[in-house]
Amino acid sequence: MEQIVFYILALIMIVMAIASVSSRKMLRSVVYLLFVLIGIAGIYFLVDYNFLAAVQLTVYAGGIVVLIIFSVLLVHHMEMEMEIAKRSKQVLTGLASLIGLGVFLTAIYSHDFGVVENILTTTTTAEIGMGLLSYGAGGFILPFEVISVLLLASMIGAIVIAKGGKLENEDTEIVGRPETEDQK
Amino acid sequence: MNLSLSITKNIHDWLFNMMPETAASLTEMTLIATVYLAVFAVTGLFLVLLERKVAAWFQLRLGPNRVGPWGLLQTMADALKLVSKELTGTVNADKFLYNLAPYFVIITALMALAVLPFSGEFQAFDINIGIFFLIAISSIGVIGILLAGWSSNNKFALIGAMRSGVQTISYELSVGLSLLTVILITGTLQLSEIVEVQRNGWLIVQGHIPAIFAFMIYMISGTAETNRAPFDLVEAESELGAGFHTEYSGMKFAYFFLAEFINMFIIASIATTIFFGAWLSPFGITESLPWLGVFWFLGKTLVLVFLMMWFRWTFPRLRIDQLLTLEWKYLLPLNLMNLVLMAIIVWLNLTIQF
């Protein structure tokens, strides 16, 4: 049963991944990418790691794909199609992908995976929370804090990019733009 | 005597006796899915009827009263009409995405239903991250609306879709944070355990002041997330025609329409589960009759659905900047303060427990 579901999910993901890079309509490839990401969430559900599956759905499917769709909606027109790359570029990209695939496959097949007999307990949210905030052995408090600093930096960066010029000009400009425009 | 449990258990045993294990579990899944699909298609239709009746009542009209007794079959007849209608589309629309979009919306709405605890036994998928799963699923529905608006190749539809995206992404934050406030009391995300915690008093009583704030914020942002008035800028008919579903007809339009009502039901039932003790009766008055749980659940949910309809027919529509101001300048800071307040209350053990 699990095997069948795994193969179905894997097939969907591979087909959609290929469709995503080969489609010439931008929004369609975003939608194919969405299916790949949902397929990954399905794999997480299959191995009973529900929390990660929900994170995958929220962050990638619900967050990042929506952002990509937004930017496509803003810049792209329906009748536009992406141009086909030159032959030399196609060959080069194909080679690079093959090398990447080779590295992955050799890494996976040379590593000796320990087979764990059916673990029926799923990782709970409480365990994840404890792990993230503990500073003992196996705790992740330092990476957690570093990532939060990184996020803060990127948020400030986004604000500066969006409003930096306007903030400087604010003194000289008498009639500023309506406040509401900036919030979007 | 536990009625619902014995029925499902009998069918379960019968299936597993008759077939090999894989086939039996597949059949069982299909059966459950079919039951949910059928029940909620009908529920959606009757919610539409309820909305029309409530609207009529608020506007001193009679509302639908011709088809069936008191017009009860009106929306059924409408659904049949919609099934038989021609499916139209615009010439240059992206046909693939255009046809895909309604399914995104309706499937995410139906998936969310699977985790709701209608009674102690009537819950299809009791996952250990229940609430988080609901939030995750509801964040995907907006993709359907964005795709519908864009692939229709219609300016008004596109504007509606963009508004919907902005609105849903902003208000999702408030929905999540207000639910998180209450999760602080329960200490678990699993819906069945959240219900068990409420045997000592519903969470809106246990968490008193911050819980009431959280409930108000949740209802406001929940209404916004379902794109209903006063937050229905997405399909503001005086400005945009019908917004993102302008170009849809027949059954595809019906999917969007049905999804809106099912989403409203979901928002109301999450509120019921989190704040009002789901299928638990007040003060445990019917504790000896567990099968009444479904009716308590539906009763509480319908009261909250009525509340949302009340909003709709009372408040005028907001402007898009007012909408965003409300979320980012008022609800979000309030929510964060509320979260801290709730944390302090849980920390000092100030919750009210019976």
Q: Strands, helices and their partners?
A:
The complex is a heterodimer of chains A (184) and B (354).
Chain A lengths: L1 H21 L3 H21 L3 H26 L11 H24 L14 H9 L7 H29 L9 H5 L1
Chain B lengths: L2 H16 L2 H38 L15 H11 L10 H19 L16 H22 L3 H32 L4 H7 L5 H4 L1 H18 L11 H4 L9 H26 L17 H20 L7 H28 L7
Task: Give a description of the structure.
Chain A is 73% helix and 0% strand. The radius of gyration of chain A is 22 Å and the shape is globular. In chain A, helix 1 (2-22) runs antiparallel to helix 2. Chain A has helices spanning 2-22, 26-46, 50-75, 87-110, 125-133, 141-169, 179-183. Chain A is an all-alpha fold and 184 residues long. Residues 174-184 of chain A have low confidence and may be disordered. Chain B is an all-alpha fold and 354 residues long. Chain B has two domains: 1-84, no CATH class; 91-347, no CATH class. Chain B is 69% helix and 0% strand. The mean pLDDT of chain B is 85. Chain A binds chain B through residues 1, 4, 25, 27-28, 31, 34, 38, 50-51, 54-55, 57-58, 61-63, 65-66, 69-70, 72-73, 78-79, 122, 124-126, 178, 180, 183-184, and chain B through 21-22, 25, 92-94, 96-97, 100, 127-129, 132-133, 135-137, 139-140, 142-143, 146-147, 149-151, 153, 158, 161-162, 165-166, 169, 172, 187-189, 321, 324-325, 328.
Short précis:
The complex is a heterodimer of chains A (184) and B (354). Chain A is mostly helical.
